[in-house]
Amino acid sequence: MPVGTVGELYIGGEGLARGYFNRPELTSEKFVPHPFSAEPGERLYKTGDLVRYLADGNIENLGRIDFQLKVRGFRVELGEIEAALDQHPAVHESVVVASGAAGSDKRLVAYVVCDESQPASVQELKGFLKNRLPHYMVPPVFVLMSAMPLTPNGKVDRRALPDPEQTRPELQVEYVAARTEIEAALTEIWMQLLGLEQIGIFDNFFDLGGHSLLATKVVSRVRETFEVELPLRAVFESPTIAELSEGIENADRADQEDLEDLSELLESLERLTEAETSALLKEKLETDATTTV
């Protein structure tokens, strides 16, 4: 592989094992023919480790290939996110996992141990990753820890990592509670979709962990709750509850004005005589015919 490109590590040579004891199927899967050797019967072992060559010739380990997964249709390598996080000068150690039950909408969670001498904020770490990774690889949830839980052999015990709290993440904007009924209803919708217990009206939907798939659910819930049809782009153009609430009010006001105009038109027609109504209809038909020609 080219320098810096992630690939799977294969090993071979004189010290290579013969295979797995009493497991011929696993042996044939993991011990494969050596494609670059002229010696008959030479094999390589698929380690399952994700690595890449560095410019100085060293090999950097980025984690296990088992940690490759898809998040919202994007293929994500957890080890690549961890490697990017570890480049931050304040990060001592990091682990990234995918949280969520099987079949549900998974989200990335980053567990980070920072050096005590130079702690970093969640916003700082997110901004650091946004400059280095695609948006779908930036974890929306960060958990700052004093130390990682370890297995008896000294590796990070991923099963012992704590569940992230459902509290409002650290944001640059100050928390402001809902002021109107529409804002309160929107806040409830966002809390249910994002799995958070507290959301401010000036919090950005996407900074809270929202994404395009959740945005479609927001539009659907708005339609059910307020009987207002908003385009999907409204969530991207107005990503806070305060802004989206204003959009709902404007849409509702426009619908109300249309109803009032229709009501006034019907009242005007009711005041006309049958002859006046027939004359008006005839004039309308003649105008439409002229326009069509």
What can you see in these coordinates?
It contains eight helices and nine strands. The protein has helices at residues 24-30, 78-86, 122-130, 181-194, 212-226, 233-237, 241-271, 274-292; strands spanning 7-11, 31-33, 43-53, 59-64, 68-71, 74-77, 91-99, 107-114, 141-145. The strands form three sheets. Strands 1, 2, 3 and 4 form a four-stranded antiparallel beta sheet that branches. A three-stranded mixed beta sheet has the order 7-8-9, with helices on one face. The protein has a two-stranded antiparallel sheet with strand order 5-6. The longest helix is centred in the C-terminal third of the chain and has 31 residues, at 241-271.
Break the fold down into its secondary structure elements and pairings:
Elements: E1 7-11, H1 24-30, E2 31-33, E3 43-53, E4 59-64, E5 68-71, E6 74-77, H2 78-86, E7 91-99, E8 107-114, H3 122-130, E9 141-145, H4 181-194, H5 212-226, H6 233-237, H7 241-271, H8 274-292
Parallel strand pairs: 8-9
Antiparallel strand pairs: 1-3, 2-3, 3-4, 5-6, 7-8
Helix pairs in contact: 4-5, 4-7
